[in-house]
């Protein structure tokens, strides 16, 4: 219930943000901090500027390139990515909206910060999709598979695992978590998972899902004919069966709403998951694994219908 | 020639050393590059195999699939030169070992920091297994690339070493072959120069030996050599032409010389013939004239007639002396007198001189003293006698009455010096060189007519001394006297038996002493000259002898057949035709069967006749014979034969 309320609240905020606010917006100075000039970040930057054109004044900084940056002249900092967030939180008392950050990472940063930092208005839009949405995706794409396996390293907090299991249970599925205690034991743990479960669901955990391991994880899952569900479009490109993700434009849109809200109230709404999402599938992988798939739009539509239906 | 480096060797050295240096240097660089390439290639292939194996092993190591790794590694082992392979996990534990490396721990010596280790037989190559990076939208920190494991590949050097060794041998072989080819080419090229040069050298030596027909044909393409060849051939041709011209000249000169010589010889023979003829033909009538005058003297009775005959005899005597002197000097000049050098008793010679001139000296009222000398010299006794006689005669002639002529001998080292001294007028120093010239007479001439000389005596002495190689010395002070000295080589050891003097043993007898001895003695007189025959017969008859005359050996035979017998034979030496007095004597002695005494008379004074006569033990008299001398000899021989 609480979650539903939150979503409704978010919808209200969104509505408010969409109202014409030209009279005050000009005075809001927004400083966008990018972790680097990667394609996703710059796409977010330009999409945000476009959404808030004429409403806010923007300056953009590349944290990786410009280390001597100061934010004295900004009303709000939008930190894009973990590095920018870390820099923004550590340096000023200007309100910070972090976007495209993993939930675990953001929470870790906040936990590490000083009391003064905690006092300033801080919020975030996670890169993570809400667990229910992930489960819904599996449910729509692989309706016959109900045993979901998850690998996690010791850095993942127990609460997240509990949330995951809860979400699976809510959709009538079984979710098994397998801890990978060391890099050496990855294969053995993966092997166990692939023997026991029917779907491998990736989570944002760079100790396991990193560029070096990715290929071997994918290879192992193929051999076991267990599909992997990723957390971004890159996973799909690398060989995952499919993924639910939010594009930079979708995130920018959501961020624009938050900025408007901040401009209006002078305060930031609380942290939240991405509201809008996209679906990506790898048809080649699906063919190799003998899985028939609907189109991405259809899957998305079904997910929303299924989600609506389950509510 | 050994200390000189041969031309060919020098050329070879000059050409071969740079080539050798170049070839060896190039080969060295080539080999070094090639070896390094081979090593590099082995290493590169090793690295390639290692990286392939690393890529292939990635999933095997990730999944710890040892069966898979074994298969992949063995696949790598099938690659060329791969000797072994080891796959390590992240903890550097060996997951799989294949090949020879399985038994060794050498793979542990290579790692990420020292990825290559080169051993004697192998190269170990370490290759980390880095997982293929898959791009993900990373929302958190980007983790470091993690090494999944590693592979170690052992590459065997054996094949590379074999290849190197083969390459080395091949290179060496090619080098040797190339050098041999170069040497051969150089030899050919060198020969095209050195052979013509040695041919030229031989040709020059042949020309040096005088073989001027030598020509060189080099067939060489070298310009300088062709020039040399032409030059040498031209020089040889010129030399040959010059030599021919020279030879022609020499032959011409020789021919001219021979003609001159023959001419001279002919002239000499003519002269000799003239002398022989003159001495024979002139002596013959002189001889006869002397005998006639002698007989005439015996037959005249009145003092007036006797004085006339005496003057006639004196004139004949002078004529004879003059003739003898002229003939003597002519013979000496003509060189027909050959000295009979022998062991010679000086005492005998001196005795004869004394005998001959004692009478003359006493007539001139001079004191002639000959000091006896017992010495033997090497000379011709007859010619030495003539020298001394002429000197004494000269001294006697130029010494005034109551003067003294002294003949003495002195030993001077290896020589005997015989001196003829007088205390006469002496000879001025300016004249001393002239006294030996022909017909030279000192002024003033002696007053008395009797001793007047011809001026030939000392000229004859000079010629005889030169002929005998005796030195003549003259010392003289005008107004005090002169000393003529002749130096004769002494004999070291005197002969054992006394020498036979030519005139030795003949005693001089006076006419009175011999008067009775000649009476009724039968004498055979042989001479082919009627005038001489009749004059001699006439004088012998006047001495009381019974004379048989014969003109030839045929007449003698006739007389013998008629039963004639003789006590003595007097014969001319030369009888016509082709017979001699010796033959006559032999015939008579054979017929009478005893050694009939004999006298040979000759107008010829040649040494051959003297020798023949002396061998036969005959007594030889030279024309013109003085009647007194003949009578004395006849008397002596008859007296000696008497005891039979």
Number of helices of chain B: 14
Total count of strands of chain B? 19
The pLDDT mean of chain A sits at 84
- How do the strands line up in the largest sheet of chain B? 2-1-5-4-3
Q: What is the count of DSSP helices of chain A, taking H or I runs of 4+ residues?
A: 14
Query: Can you count the beta strands of chain A?
Result: 11
Query: Which regions of chain A contain 5 or more consecutive residues with pLDDT less than 50?
Result: 11-25
Strand order of the largest sheet of chain A: 7-6-8-9-10-11
Description:
The complex is a heterodimer of chains A (311) and B (644). Chain A is α/β, with parallel strands linked by helices. Chain A contains 14 helices and eleven strands. In chain A, helix 1 crosses helix 12, helix 4 runs parallel beside helix 5 and helix 7 packs across helix 14. Chain A has a six-stranded mixed sheet, sandwiched between helices. In chain A, strands 2-1-3-4-5 form a five-stranded parallel sheet, with helices on both faces. Chain A has helices spanning 2-18, 22-25, 39-51, 82-91, 103-112, 115-119, 131-141, 158-170, 186-196, 211-223, 233-238, 248-265, 283-288, 296-310; strands at residues 28-34, 56-62, 76-80, 96-101, 122-126, 147-152, 174-179, 199-201, 228-230, 242-245, 278-281. Chain B has 14 helices and 19 strands. In chain B, the strands form five sheets. In chain B, strands 2-1-5-4-3 form a five-stranded antiparallel sheet. Chain B is rod-shaped and about 200 Å long. Chain B starts with 6 loop residues before the first helix and ends with a helix. Residues 445-451 and 498-507 of chain B have low confidence and may be disordered. The chains are: A alpha/beta (311), B alpha/beta (644). Chain A binds chain B through residues 40, 81-82, 100-102, 104-105, 127, 183-184, 186-188, 191, 204, 206-207, 209-216, 218-220, 232-235, 237-239, and chain B through 58-59, 62-64, 89-91, 130-143, 145-146, 148.
């Amino acid at each position: 219930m609480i979650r539903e309320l939150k979503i409704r609240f978010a919808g209200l905020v969104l509505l408010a943000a969409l109202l014409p606010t030209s009279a005050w917006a000009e005075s809001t100075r927004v400083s966008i901090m990018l972790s680097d000039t990667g394609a996703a970040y710059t796409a977010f930057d330009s999409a945000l500027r476009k959404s808030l054109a004429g409403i806010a004044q923007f300056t953009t900084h590349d944290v990786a390139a410009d280390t001597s940056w100061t934010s004295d002249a900004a009303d709000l900092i939008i930190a894009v990515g973990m590095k920018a967030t870390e820099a923004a939180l550590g340096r000023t008392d200007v309100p910070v909206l972090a976007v495209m950050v993993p939930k675990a990472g953001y929470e870790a940063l906040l936990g590490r910060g000083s009391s003064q930092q905690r006092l300033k208005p801080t919020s975030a839009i996670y890169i993570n999709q809400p667990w229910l949405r992930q489960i819904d995706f599996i449910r729509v794409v692989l309706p016959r598979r109900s045993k979901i396996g998850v690998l996690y390293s010791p850095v993942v907090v127990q609460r997240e695992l509990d949330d995951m299991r809860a979400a699976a249970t809510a959709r009538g599925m079984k979710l098994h978590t397998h801890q990978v205690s060391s890099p050496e034991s990855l294969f053995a743990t993966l092997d166990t998972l692939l023997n026991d479960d029917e779907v491998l669901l990736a989570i944002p955990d760079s100790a396991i899902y990193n560029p070096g391991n990715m290929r071997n994880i994918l290879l192992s899952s193929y051999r076991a004919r267990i599909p992997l569900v990723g957390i971004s479009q890159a996973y799909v490109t690398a060989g995952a069966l499919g993924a639910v993700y939010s594009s930079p434009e979708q995130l920018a849109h959501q961020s624009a709403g938050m900025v408007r809200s901040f401009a209006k109230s002078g305060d930031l709404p609380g942290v939240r998951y991405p509201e809008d999402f996209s679906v990506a599938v790898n048809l080649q992988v699906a063919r190799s694994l003998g899985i028939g798939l609907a189109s991405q739009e259809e899957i998305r539509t079904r997910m929303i219908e299924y989600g609506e239906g389950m509510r | 020639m050994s200390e000189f480096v041969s031309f060919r060797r020098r050329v070879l050295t000059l050409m071969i050393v740079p080539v050798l240096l170049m070839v060896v240097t190039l080969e060295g660089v080539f080999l070094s590059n090639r070896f390094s390439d081979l090593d590099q290639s082995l290493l590169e292939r090793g690295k390639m195999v290692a990286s392939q194996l690393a890529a292939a092993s990635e999933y095997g190591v990730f999944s710890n699939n040892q069966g898979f790794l074994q298969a992949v590694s063995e696949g790598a082992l099938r690659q060329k030169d791969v000797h072994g392979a080891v796959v390590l996990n992240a903890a550097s534990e060996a997951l799989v070992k294949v090949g020879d490396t399985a038994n060794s721990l050498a793979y542990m010596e290579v790692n990420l920091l020292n990825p290559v280790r080169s051993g004697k037989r192998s190269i170990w190559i370490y290759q980390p297994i880095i997982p293929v990076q898959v791009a993900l939208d990373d929302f958190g920190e980007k983790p470091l690339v993690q090494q999944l494991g590693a592979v170690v590949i052992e590459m065997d050097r054996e094949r590379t070493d074999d290849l190197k060794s083969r390459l080395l041998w091949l290179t060496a072989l090619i080098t040797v072959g190339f050098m041999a080819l170069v040497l051969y080419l150089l030899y050919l090229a060198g020969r095209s120069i050195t052979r013509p040069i040695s041919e030229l050298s031989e040709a020059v030596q042949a020309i040096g030996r005088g073989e001027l027909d030598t020509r060189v044909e080099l067939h060489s393409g070298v310009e300088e050599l062709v020039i040399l060849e032409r030059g040498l051939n031209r020089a040889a041709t010129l030399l040959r032409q010059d030599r021919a011209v020279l030879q022609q000249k020499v032959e011409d000169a020789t021919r001219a010389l021979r003609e001159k010589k023959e001419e001279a010889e002919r002239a000499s023979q003519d002269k000799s013939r003239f002398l022989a003829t003159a001495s024979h033909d002139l002596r013959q009538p002189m001889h006869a004239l002397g005998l006639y005058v002698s007989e005439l003297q015996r037959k005249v009775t009145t003092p007036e007639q006797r004085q006339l005959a005496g003057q006639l005899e004196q004139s004949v005597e002078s004529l004879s002396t003059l003739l003898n002197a002229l003939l003597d000097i002519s013979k000496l000049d003509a060189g027909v007198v050959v000295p009979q050098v022998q062991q010679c008793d000086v005492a005998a010679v001196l005795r004869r001189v004394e005998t001959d001139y004692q009478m003359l000296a006493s007539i001139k009222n001079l004191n002639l003293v000959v000091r006896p000398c017992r010495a033997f010299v090497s000379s011709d006794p007859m010619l030495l006698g003539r020298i001394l006689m002429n000197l004494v005669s000269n001294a006697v002639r130029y010494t005034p009455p109551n003067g003294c002529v002294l003949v003495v001998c002195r030993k001077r080292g290896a020589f005997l010096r015989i001196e003829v001294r007088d205390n006469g007028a002496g000879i001025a120093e300016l004249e001393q060189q002239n006294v030996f010239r022909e017909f030279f007479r000192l002024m003033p001439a002696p007053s008395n007519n009797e001793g007047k000389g011809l001026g030939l005596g000392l000229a004859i002495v000079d010629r005889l001394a030169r002929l005998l190689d005796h030195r003549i010395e003259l010392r003289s002070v005008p107004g005090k006297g002169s000393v003529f000295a002749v130096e004769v080589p002494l004999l070291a050891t005197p002969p054992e038996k006394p020498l036979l003097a030519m005139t030795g043993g003949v005693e001089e007898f006076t006419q009175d002493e011999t008067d009775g001895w000649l009476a009724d003695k039968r004498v055979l007189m042989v001479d082919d000259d009627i005038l001489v025959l009749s004059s001699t017969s006439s004088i012998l008859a006047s001495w009381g002898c019974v004379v048989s005359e014969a003109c030839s050996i045929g007449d003698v035979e006739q007389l013998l057949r008629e039963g004639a017998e003789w006590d003595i034979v007097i014969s001319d030496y030369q009888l016509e035709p082709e017979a001699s007095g010796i033959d006559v004597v032999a015939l008579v002695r054979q017929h009478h069967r005893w050694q009939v005494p004999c006298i040979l008379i000759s107008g010829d004074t040649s040494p051959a006749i003297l020798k023949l006569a002396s061998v036969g033990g005959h007594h030889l008299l030279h024309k013109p014979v003085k009647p007194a001398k003949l009578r004395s000899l006849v008397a002596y021989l008859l007296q000696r034969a008497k005891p039979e």
